[in-house]
Design brief:
- The structure is a single chain.
- By secondary structure, this protein is mainly α.
- Helix content is about 70%, strand content about 0%.
- It has 6 helices and no strands.
- The chain is globular, with a radius of gyration of 16 Å.
- The C terminus is likely disordered.
Length: about 180
């Protein structure tokens, strides 16, 4: 189980980095924080990767990885967005203007990109993450889980009350990191 926690945390962090890089490269005027946690983590990436790695081994190589992995990651993205809207009253992103979108929650270009990103994620990133997870003392994992859980509970409570991602961002980063 600790291995899946480290996979979740690692890919959540890498997702946060990817979001920041994408916003910088595209010079996006909307560089808001799309995560719901105080830590620099985007849980949708960690959840998506954990779901992909839970697929049967026969679906985690070659074109099945692209097809089924991409569909799995897109499904997680859709469910995560739906959950945020339904239970927190927030919309983490909006693909409404993007070709092939489904209720603004997912879109064809990003679904295709997730499929491509899965190859380096599964074959290049996951093995060192698993090796690292095997070396981390269980006490360290428990302390990080405690910190993560406290962070998640506080962030979820804040969003459930305010329904405002921008207010959460202002609490976390009072001085904009986008300047």
């Amino acid at each position: 189980m600790a291995e899946y926690l480290w996979i979740f945390w690692s890919f959540s962090l890498l997702g946060w980095v990817l979001e920041r890089l994408f916003a910088a490269v595209t010079r996006s005027p909307r560089r808001r924080r799309r995560c719901l946690l105080l830590l620099p983590l985007c849980p949708v990436y960690g959840l998506g990767m954990a779901a992909v790695l839970a697929l049967p081994p026969s679906l985690r190589s070659g074109w099945p990885l692209y097809l089924w992995g991409g569909l799995t990651a897109t499904s997680v993205e859709y469910i995560y967005h739906w959950w945020g809207e339904t239970f927190l009253g927030v919309s983490f992103w909006d693909y409404t203007g993007v070709f092939g979108n489904l209720r603004g929650r997912v879109c064809l270009p990003f679904s295709l990109a997730w499929g491509l990103l899965l190859f380096p994620a599964v074959y290049l990133v996951t093995p060192p993450v698993v090796a690292l997870a095997d070396r981390v003392p269980i006490g360290v994992t428990w302390w990080l889980l405690l910190a993560f859980t406290a962070d998640a509970v506080c962030s979820l409570r804040f969003l459930a009350v305010t329904h405002d991602l921008e207010a959460l961002r202002a609490v976390i980063w009072p001085v904009s990191a986008d300047r």
